[in-house]
Design brief:
Layout lengths: L8 E7 L4 H5 L10 E3 L4 E6 L2 E10 L2 E7 L4 H10 L6 H8 L3 H9 L10 H11 L4 H15 L2 E4 L4 E3 L4 H4 L4 H5 L7 H13 L11 H8 L7 H10 L11 H11 L7 H12 L3 H32 L1
Antiparallel strand pairs: 1-5, 2-3, 3-4, 4-5, 6-7
Helix pairs in contact: 4-14, 5-6, 5-9, 5-11, 10-11
This protein binds a DNA duplex (13 and 12 nucleotides) through helix 5, helix 6, helix 11 and helix 12.
Length: about 300
Amino acid sequence: MAIAQYGNVSCEFRLEAFSMKHTFESAQPLTFYADYDPKANLLSYGAGKLFMRLESKERNPKAVLKVYGKRSKAYSLEVYKRFRLDDNMDKIYKAIAKDSHVSEAIARYYGMRLTLNDPWETTLCFIISQFNNVKRIRLIVSNIVERFGNVVYSDGKITVKSFPTSEELKNATDSELRALGTGFRSKYITSAAAFCTDNINLYKLNANNYEKLKSRLMEIDGVGEKVADCIALMGYGNLSAFPTDVWIKRTMEKLYFDGKKVKPRDIHEFAKDYWGPYAGYAQQYLFHNARTYREDKQKAEKGKSSAEQQA
DNA sequence: ACCCAGGCGGGCG
DNA sequence: CGCCCGCATGGG
């Protein structure tokens, strides 16, 4: 593929630890509707009124991240912020790699970053995530962007739409949303959209006060403790948050609680004491490892057994 | 057929 | 408070 067809390079980042592949396979809000081409390691998506196209040349552990688009300072700052490129991964890895469980996950998914997403976008994505799986979350979010988003880029080959604002969604009808696959979550979506438009300003919440932030977010219909943690982590960049979903619960019980069933409160307490201010990064590595390494092992087993059958 | 998926709100004790 | 249940939908 000719680079020219992507337009001009607007900025370029040389990074010590950045993997677009692992970042985009790790089930974060922007990956729920981005158009990602793993062969070219090229990502396209709409963010607010921006269109982003990024290409990563990975030279593990060094990477070059090229950004195609408008050559402006605001644009490059947006990319910088969203991909948390100022995170000192060396320092973070040292802080969370306290045992082989985390250090092995870091080795496998070296360069995976948390992303910093728009608060409303994160809220909607994780309301949809409840009692759902990643594949379907991706589908539903894409459907919503396709149906309610505005075109931010179009070149004849690819069209990219922005994520709809709460105001753009609050008047959506129930049947309209259910047609997009939202199911029983449809009422949460319209209720949250109205609340975030009229009763709370997500853009004025204090990102640094973890407990306060979480309790404010839980005022939103359809946002409980787990979803609030996801929003705090990926929508506000509060790295103290430790979202405890079914995967993390199982993983934590197995690795740190001797296989015993424990409550999310016990897990939060452990995470806070053990990983401290970077607990959120530990969570993302354990979560991605639990899902992906398991899949890879299953594929390997499958390939092995079929190979044995053939032999 | 049955079980599971980045859970939540409501109702009950 | 804590516990239990129903909730839509598609894939393994």
